[in-house]
Structure formats: structure tokens, C-alpha cells
Amino acid sequence: MIYFDNAATSFPKPLSVLREVTKCIKSYCGNPGRGAHSLSRISSEKVFTAREEIASLFGSDKPENVFFTYNDTYALNMVIKGLLQKGDHVLISDMEHNSVYRPIAVMAEKGLIEFDIFDSMCLSWGRNGEEICEGIKKLIKPNTKMLIAAHASNICSAVLPICEIGALCRSLGIIFVLDGAQSAGHIPISMERDNIDVLCAPGHKGLYGLQGSGFVILGDGIMPNPIIEGGSGVNSLDIHMPELSPERFEAGTVSVPCAIALCEGIKFVRERGMEEIHEHECTLFCRAFDMLSSFENVTIYAPMHIGSVLLFNVDSVPSERLSDMLDGCGICTRGGYHCSPLGHRTLGTPTGGAVRLSFSPFNTMRELETFYSSMKSIVRA
After folding, report:
1. Residues near 86 by Cβ (< 8 Å), separated by ≥ 6?
2. What is the pTM of this model?
3. Which CATH architecture has domain 15-271?
4. Do 123 and 303 form a contact (C-beta atoms < 8 A)?
5. Residue 87 neighbours by CB distance under 10 Å
6. How does pLDDT run across 315-356, given as a tens digit for each residue?
7. Domain boundaries along the sequence of the chain
8. Whether CATH 3.90.1150.10 fits 273-380
9. What is the DSSP letter of 123?
10. pLDDT of 203-252, one tens digit each?
11. Widest Cα–Cα separation across the chain
């Protein structure tokens, strides 16, 4: 099996992740913060170490501002619904995933907020941060409270100039929320350097953790209202959630195996080197681009952006049908709209979306040669 669906979830996981998760489940998987016994203490220490690793990787000096979620979608929903109030105005990019677009659009539909979509200039060959920021400025209103942006698209390899966008937001007092779903582990992110107020990311993609894991990092002075209440392990006699992070946001038991896996996944990223990972993925992208460009009836979307994600179509073959045909050849891809109708509209894909290839450091040139051979047989057919 050849796996080119890493933008959905990375596979396989590093052996170091598998070993430590197995050790956790066998040896020390107590309930963190829920007892004075040794297994609870060990689990608490391991979970805090995971917070420290996350904070360090993303340029935060406050591990207590890291809290865990089920995934990136939960992280974004908790931030969006925990910070926005009636009458607020929000800006989102034209490449957002439904994890941002849906909660924002539904809140607007209910009359709670209003929002506008800014142009990421995804299809502009000479785009730059200044031009994108100028477009954002034109949409800002007196009640603009938040800007949410996907750092990297999940359907192509376009990356937003977050440092410039963050600086603009900081100068205007607008909360800058970054969705790191497709960039965390691939592209460096710094809360401080990039003026990020809130970072949301999954644990199971470029950080090589387990499915069912995600996290939020809060900047100084950012404290959402909790949208889930329950046991936190502290102040049990108080009906309200604690005032401080992370307990304010982690109602119920934290998944120790997920935190452990994420911690080990980050260590893998550090050891392999984020730059080396990115360069490898770019090399695979360029080779796949050359292969697909050799076919007359293949369309590649946003080819000017080189990275871990490549989107394409074969004329007259529906994307999900093409993905199914590749699966029959033992190659995992994903067809359709990839939960990003905004992005597909921006790129101009046809009805039915397109096929996505997404790479990881475990993919090889030999796998691409097999993909090319399969594509030749499919296109000829």
C-alpha cells in the first residue's frame, strides 16, 4: 500500500511514537490530576512534559497555556465560540477548511456575528504579504474582533504570510487565530515572532501523534469562555470551571496516550528536522508535478505553490472515481472537496472537486514511480 493521504492524517507513525504509546498503556496510564497515587502523578508529569514540548516548538514560554482537544476542529470551535460575542465581526481567508467556515457561517446565520472573506491571492504568481494585508485592511470594521487564517491550505501548498498578517492584527488590536492543521510540523511557527494570539493544530497530522488529538496554545491575555463544563480535578465544590488554563478547558479525562504520542511525534520532528522534512516533501511534489504534467488531459491546481500537497484532475474522470481507481492499484489518495468548499471555489475546481496527493517524510520516489505507472494505465483506459 502506498499512502498519499497525509493531509488527512499521517501514516505510518514513527516507531518511537508506537513504542512510547505502548509503554504508556502497559505501564503508567493513570488518570492525570485525578488522584494522589503514583500512576496519576506519573501521567500528570508526562502530560505536562507534552505541554512543554508543544509550547517550545511553537515559540511559547507558557506550557500552562497549552490545552488538549479531540482534534483541530474542536480546538477551533472552542476558540471561536469561547471568544466571540454578539455583534462581533470576523475575517477569514478564502482557503479555509470547514472547521472554520462552518462555525463562523452558522453563527452569522443566527445573527450572532458577521464575517467577511479576504483574498489570499492563492492563484497570483507574484503575491506578497503587503498586497494581502492591503486587501484585509479594506474589510476591517470598527467591530472587527478576530481574524482566522489557515497557515497552509489543505488542498494545495499555498502558505499565507502569517508574520505580516499577525503584525497587522496586533497593530489594530484584532485577535489573530492561526489554524496550523497543514503547517504544524512542516513549516516553522512562532507565537511570538508571528504575532499569533491563538494557535490551533491537530496532533495526528504533521506532528505524527494519534487520531483524536489536537491542542490550543493561548497567547498572553487571551482567555476564552469554556464551552464544555465538567470535572477538572480541581475546585470540585465550585460549579464553575476553573479560571486558569489548562484546567478551564479540559473538562473530563485528558487522553494520556494522545499526549504521549504527540510529545514523541514532536521529538521525531526535531530529530529529523523540519527543514529536511519540508525539503523532502517539496522534492516529491516537484517529481509528481513533472509526472502529471506529462499527461495532456491532467489539470494541476495552484502549481506555483510547492509543498506537501498537490491537487489535480483528469479530464472527464470524476475525482472520487479516479481516487477509487488509484485505490485499486494500492495507492491511497483523496478525491472530492476535502471539507474545503471555499478553497475549491477559489481554485476553480469543477463539480466533484479534485484528487489530492499529500506527502510525508516516509514517502519515496519509488512510490511515485508506481503512482506514475498506475496513472498511465488509468489515463490510457
Report:
1. 112, 113
2. 0.95
3. 3-Layer(aba) Sandwich (3.40)
4. no
5. 11
6. 989 999 999 999 999 999 999 999 999 999 999 999 999 999
7. 15-271, 273-380
8. yes
9. T
10. 999 999 999 999 999 999 999 999 888 887 777 888 888 888 998 998 88
11. 70
